[in-house]
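Query structure, 501 tokens:
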């Protein structure tokens, strides 16, 4: 063998070793990359159906809570053909919504809402339109009284109207739904439209009733199936009813807008609609025609604020009254504290700090009722979250119920236990895992208004009435199972409001 042959052989061996080293490095990098891109675990899906057979579509959040016990706080479930990553537990949900707000901050609305609202408004939009409408809504909610004395006065006035309505029942059983909904709705109406309505005004009551019916239908099993398999939706009566509700509400709002526009005075802004119309007018006069202040954003923003400002607060208040009837000893403690601290005068927001037990009862109601069990988000970019790779555009659903029922955060998560919010001396304590309004950039815009409403309405009603089960019934017969829907309403609707002597 010559020197040249040795050189060639040696060179070939080096090349071969080099190639093997490169392949090994590529493999290791690839393996490492696969580990880094490990997607969230979950049950194996069936073709087309996904994991639907493992879910109770009437109460999907319960099925999902069970799956989180098996697969962890970040897991994947296929809703039909659609992949959804679910987040469970306080620490995980907070990390996603607050720490990683940019990555998880986009909205992923169900098909039914996308079709009806076309990406406008505040609840179902993303991008610049969402930023502009949210900023506008927040600014004007504050300008028209949210968190201020003006708003408190409106709520106190509405309490007087509601008390008079309940007195007419003379202690007999009645359905709490409509009177409570009308009272709460009037607060957002006074802010949005600039005036309240009478409870016997058919224009007002039909708008409230239709809106609440629509919210209930959005969470029905048939509409959930439509969101996953839209090609079979034409056979669903609930879908047609939702479309009719949206159409009728639009027509009614157009009439309200028209009347407000006819009497519009830029020097005397009556409510949020006026503020929007004035802003739109000013932009058009400046030659700006491509702004987000257009008629469709006005329509959808008002519909979103009206629905959110009515249904969630009214539902929570109805849960509070039901729980007082269910647990009379706790009702006794609330009324004793009110008599001792307030006496016969009207409760005001500043009294909250002197009513720790009452405040704890309201917070515990919000926690236990968990009226919005799930949120709908999506990732705005590729993200590695708690060791799991989640691709950009993936639907992500934080389970708020898992936060409010987190066994590592609450001593008695499945019981009505006001002591969750009290220290050993009976003073009110805040809890970080109390997150009924969500958190981060998508948190409820009307949180401070809702908190004020719940406190004043609840205390005012407990000053005037004792709430009990219907005649012949008992506390044990009051059902705490929520009704099926997007918002968890109480199943038990009838109570007695017995005037306090």
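Result returned for the query:
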């Amino acid at each position: 063998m010559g020197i040249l042959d040795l050189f060639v052989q040696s060179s070939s061996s080096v090349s071969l070793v080099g190639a093997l080293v490169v392949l090994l490095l590529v493999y290791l990098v690839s393996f490492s990359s696969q580990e880094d891109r490990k997607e969230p675990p979950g049950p194996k899906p069936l073709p087309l159906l996904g994991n639907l057979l493992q879910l109770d579509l009437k109460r999907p959040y319960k099925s999902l809570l069970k799956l989180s016990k098996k697969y962890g706080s970040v897991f994947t479930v296929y809703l039909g053909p659609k992949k959804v990553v679910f987040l469970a537990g306080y620490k995980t949900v907070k990390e996603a919504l607050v720490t990683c707000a940019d990555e998880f901050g986009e909205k992923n609305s169900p098909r039914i809402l996308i079709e009806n609202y076309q990406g406008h408004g505040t609840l179902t939009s993303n991008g610049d339109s969402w930023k502009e409408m949210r900023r506008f809504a927040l600014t004007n909610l504050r300008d028209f009284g949210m968190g201020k004395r003006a708003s408190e006065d409106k709520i106190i006035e509405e309490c007087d109207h509601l008390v008079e309505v309940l007195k007419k029942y003379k202690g007999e059983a009645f359905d709490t739904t409509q009177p409570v909904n009308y009272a709460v709705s009037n607060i957002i109406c006074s802010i949005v439209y600039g005036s309240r309505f009478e409870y016997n005004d058919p224009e007002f009551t039909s708008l409230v009733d239709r809106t609440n019916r629509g919210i209930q239908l959005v969470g029905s099993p048939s509409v959930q199936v439509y969101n996953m398999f839209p090609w079979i939706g034409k056979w669903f009566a609930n879908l047609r009813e939702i479309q009719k509700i949206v159409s009728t509400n639009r027509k009614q709002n157009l009439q309200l807008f028209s009347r407000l526009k006819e009497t519009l005075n830029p020097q005397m802004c009556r409510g949020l609609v006026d503020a929007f119309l004035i802003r739109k007018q000013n932009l058009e006069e400046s030659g700006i025609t491509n702004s987000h202040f257009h008629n469709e954003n006005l329509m959808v923003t008002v519909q979103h604020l009206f629905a959110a400002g009515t249904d969630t607060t009214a539902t929570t208040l109805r849960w509070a009254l039901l729980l007082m009837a269910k647990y009379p000893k706790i009702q006794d403690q609330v009324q004793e504290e009110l008599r001792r601290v307030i006496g016969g005068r009207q409760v005001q927001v500043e009294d909250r700090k002197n009513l720790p037990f009452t405040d704890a009862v309201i917070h515990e109601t919000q926690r236990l009722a968990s009226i919005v069990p799930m949120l709908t988000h999506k990732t705005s970019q590729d993200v590695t979250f708690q060791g799991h790779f989640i691709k950009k555009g993936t639907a992500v659903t934080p389970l708020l119920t898992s936060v409010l029922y987190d066994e590592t955060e609450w001593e008695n998560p499945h019981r009505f236990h006001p002591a969750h919010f009290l220290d050993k001396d009976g003073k009110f304590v805040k809890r970080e895992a109390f997150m009924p309004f969500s958190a981060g950039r998508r948190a409820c815009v009307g949180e401070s208004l809702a908190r004020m409403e719940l406190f004043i309405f609840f205390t005012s009603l407990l000053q005037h009435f004792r709430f009990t089960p219907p005649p012949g019934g008992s506390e044990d017969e009051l059902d705490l199972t929520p009704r099926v829907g997007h918002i968890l309403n109480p199943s038990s609707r009838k109570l007695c409001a017995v005037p306090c002597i």
